[in-house]
Amino acid sequence: METMVLNKLDTNPATDPSRLMALRDGMYAADLFIAAVAHLNFFSWLNEHPADLKKICEGLKIKERPADVMLTLFKAYGLLEQKENELHLTELAREHLVDSSQWYLGPYLATQMNRPACLDMVNILRTGEPEGWGGNKNEKEWALAMEKEEFSENFTEAMDSRGAFLAPALAQRIDFKDYNRLLDIGGASGIYSAAIVLKHQNMSAAVLEKPPIDRIARHSINKRGLSGRITVIGSDMFKEKLPEGYDVHLYSNVFHDWDEGEIRGLLKKSYEALDGEGMIVVHDAHLNPEKNGPLEIAEYSVLLMLSTRGKCYSCREVGTFMEEAGFSGIQVIPTVASRSIITAVKPGK
Predict the structure, then answer these.
(1) What's the pTM?
(2) Mind listing the domains of the chain with CATH numbers?
(3) Segment 170-186, tens digit of pLDDT
């Protein structure tokens, strides 16, 4: 097993790496943009047919999940605007992305239309199905690739390096004084649990992960010297009930890998298992309520669309999912790198 860097989780860096993270997270956004212009002639079509998401999908014969990611990106780029229930082009898009305009940039953009990643975007828009991780044709989609030992070790280590910046910010933003037992669902290496128990001495935690990631979590927690305060539960969050006896449930960077139905199912399980008056915490890259930014999150959503069955959800969407499951008292708390926490509570029995 690779040795993870055991970052100090009770300190913050002197500099902000958000831009460096965004370079990686947003790498596929340009390919989706070029695919929309050169393969779908999307902007010319929408100029003639202002429409909502459903009608756009019907008119262009594309699937809803990738279409939603695409429209969110273009709103964040300043190319689309919402007018009542329809999307319309902005002046920027009308002048440069409509084929009847004298300033049309389509031929220029089309010089890159056969890039492999650009063709992947067309396929995802048409089928709704994710590609292999990182656009690798020899790799499975992310959820299946994570069942392989080597891939799961490398991927978890990669997310651990990101967590060294994100986890302390999460731990510092929430007051856990009225809580004691955290269940970190889909918690990977346990880095977020580690940051929380180090910051809040009243807290103990359990990381719930399925094999082979549960073994990686145990290794990481032991190396950090936290096995006395953090345990690991080997379980599949989708196939099995969540364990009872916890007054906080944490989903950190989990929801963005899954579709709406799976998220609703997890929240229902949490509501059933969580202690009365317990708190649910969703830490992720959330879009704003209007789904027109932040730009770096709209770009990140494209990467997720490529290789997972998820995308970035807005804080309003996640809040609605929580309320549908029975939670109340929704709060949104910004952290770092355009990430945020959404909390809610389960009414007492």
Answers:
(1) 0.94
(2) 21-129 (1.10.10.10), 144-345 (3.40.50.150)
(3) 999 999 999 999 999 99
